[in-house]
Amino acid sequence: MIFINSEKYMNMRNKIIQNKPLYKFLKFVYKFTPYIHYIGYPLLLFYLVIIWDLRFIKVFTIPLFTFLAVTVMRILINRLRPYEKTNIKPLFPKKTKRKSFPSRHVASSVIITFSFLYINVWLGAASLLVTITIAVLRPIAGIHYPSDVLGAAFISSLFGLLFFIL
Questions:
Q1: How far apart (Å, rounded) are the C-alpha atoms in residues 146 and 66?
Q2: What is the pLDDT of residue 86?
Q3: Cβ atoms of 115 and 62 closer than 8 Å
Q4: What secondary structure letter does DSSP report for 55?
Q5: Tell me, what DSSP letter sits at residue 161?
Q6: Residue ranges of domains in the chain
Q7: Are 66 and 152 in contact (CB under 8 A)?
Q8: What percent of the chain has pLDDT over 90?
């Protein structure tokens, strides 16, 4: 597990909060970026159905299976979140308890990126930027450990490589 140094985290957090424009920007990006996939992925599925593209089956089932697998892992591992285990305050308030590993936001974003890549390389590249943003902001927000994010990215990348690429 990659730990968070409480003192360094709180120092970074306080500097971000004191810089109001930066704080507002990060808060907007933190809240907005997941919606890009929440909206874009169903639109991709809808498009594939409309054009009767059989790739719909993979694009629907592989992310679903990945989401379910990661959800089960989170329940079984039941890791405390950084703000539960240390004396840090998250950058953006969060009430969720436990289930920190792996990050479901990141796991979903990575496998959705593979879905977009499977259909169109340019959509995949744009989706990758969204995924990187989400993955970077989760630990900065104090919601996940870096290892939660890296683990999620690894698991989803493995599923993506196995089921979309190979």
A1: 20
A2: 85
A3: yes
A4: T
A5: I
A6: 6-165
A7: no
A8: 82
